[in-house]
Amino acid sequence: MTKLSYWGFLSLNALLACAASIPSASHRNCQRSLKACPDGTVIVSGTNLKAHFSTVQAAIESLPHDNSSHTILVLAGEYTEQLNVTRPGPVTLLGETSHLTDASKNQVTITWAQANQDSTGQSVDNVFSSVLVVAPTLESSYTGSGTTGYAVPEDTPFGNSDFRVYNIDFTNTWADYSDGPAHALSLSRANGGFYYCGFYSYQDTVYVGKLGNAYFYKSIIAGQTDFLYGFGTAWIQSSDVLLRNCGGGITAWKGTNTTFENKYGVYIVDSSVKAANASIAPDIVGQCALGRPWNSLHRSIYANTYEDGSIDPAGYIDWVVDGVSRLTSDTFMAEYHTFGPGFNATGRASTNASIVLSPKEYAPYNSPRKVFQTPDGKAGNIDWIDWQA
Ligand SMILES: *[C@@H]1O[C@H](CO)[C@@H](O)[C@H](O)[C@H]1NC(C)=O
Ligand SMILES: *[C@@H]1O[C@H](CO)[C@@H](O)[C@H](O)[C@H]1NC(C)=O
Ligand SMILES: *[C@@H]1O[C@H](CO)[C@@H](O)[C@H](O)[C@H]1NC(C)=O
Ligand SMILES: *[C@@H]1O[C@H](CO)[C@@H](O)[C@H](O)[C@H]1NC(C)=O
Ligand SMILES: *[C@@H]1O[C@H](CO)[C@@H](O)[C@H](O)[C@H]1NC(C)=O
Ligand SMILES: *[C@@H]1O[C@H](CO)[C@@H](O)[C@H](O)[C@H]1NC(C)=O
């Protein structure tokens, strides 16, 4: 309880009264003006003396390790730190902004510069590079290696049941080209929704690990190499996937054999995949592959999505290691109703890597309700998604 002495103008009662995630309409007012925030909102600012904490991680660590709901408002500014959320209860991180529905104008940035090596150059697991980690334990967040990745102990509890972020950018500034895994986000064994957020790096920008469920809405995800990767399930809705250069593939998923039918994979829907800006665009025409199989059970689908001329005419590509192709009949690297200069039907037909789906083939995957599962494989795990955002 010693932390309470830091809590400035908030009373203990007000803090404990903060029992539920605040509704969308109410947090939107709070993001525009501190005065409109519900009682119990934890305030972070590097400069405002009214704030409870000067770093976001200190605010996260002040929350009890239980199932209660908490909201943190981060005032405009740049925060140089790594975040790590292990608690099971709902957490909402709000970024102060005067442009609630435009991720390109976010006023809060969390930034860190790290790849998968320590200060002596020794390589370490990719998780240590991440700007934001959401996972119950360190082991559950490891990427590991081999076709099945790190063997997470089976008795590991599920982590955060309902993690939400609005209008915050997560930027890994390690290098301005692919120079090893450098995560902006790592989410495992948790449910997370990201609304009007930005994720910027070059390699492995977004990692959705084992039993991770991540929903992105009107967000920006920027990278060069394998920058949407993982084992879990990601649904990227109405967002911009920005190509800062080309390398590997945009998606690189590892599928998992389970006793139930799983839908693990990455779904990019009603979105736009395009060069990050007009200066890089002419350099990457026809060169960015939609994805490549990190293992043979890779699943990714681009649906109803615009593709600019940066996309490789073949679409997806194989990943050959020691002369061995990873493509099998289980590899599911697909598109459904993609359009724009990046979609070349002849190119797609010339390779076994790219699959173009019929409506019937896409139907089992065509909504978040169908793909987000509980750890034991039940569909419809979507209560943590904010449909009003
Ligand atoms: C949180 O809730 C879950 C599921 O209801 C329960 O299993 C778990 O023990 C709770 N955790 C804590 C720390 O209270
Ligand atoms: C996150 O915090 C937990 C609990 O303190 C710790 O065990 C874990 O190592 C941290 N994760 C990272 C990647 O630092
Ligand atoms: C365009 O994007 C590339 C890749 O991220 C970057 O290096 C370059 O600085 C950007 N140029 C402009 C004008 O923003
Ligand atoms: C999944 O099971 C198939 C069939 O037994 C096997 O060939 C494949 O290697 C397994 N893949 C993974 C990633 O475990
Ligand atoms: C489409 O792909 C085919 C086969 O790879 C190629 O010959 C053709 O030039 C491509 N068309 C465009 C417009 O890029
Ligand atoms: C696709 O796979 C079939 C069957 O394995 C093979 O005969 C064919 O050559 C492959 N085509 C391409 C373009 O790789």
TrEMBL record:
A GO molecular function held by the record: lyase activity
Principal EC category: hydrolase
Biological pathway: Glycan metabolism; pectin degradation; 2-dehydro-3-deoxy-D-gluconate from pectin: step 1/5
Record's keyword terms, sorted: Aspartyl esterase, Hydrolase, Lyase, Secreted, Signal
UniProt cross-references to PROSITE patterns, sorted A to Z: PROKAR_LIPOPROTEIN (PS51257)
Leader sequence segment: 1-19
Organism encoding this protein: Aspergillus pseudoustus
Protein name stated in the entry: pectinesterase
Family listed: Belongs to the pectinesterase family.
Domain of life: Eukaryota
One of the Pfam families matching this protein, by short name: Pectinesterase
Record-annotated Pectinesterase catalytic domain positions: 162-355
EC number: 3.1.1.11
Cellular localisation: Secreted
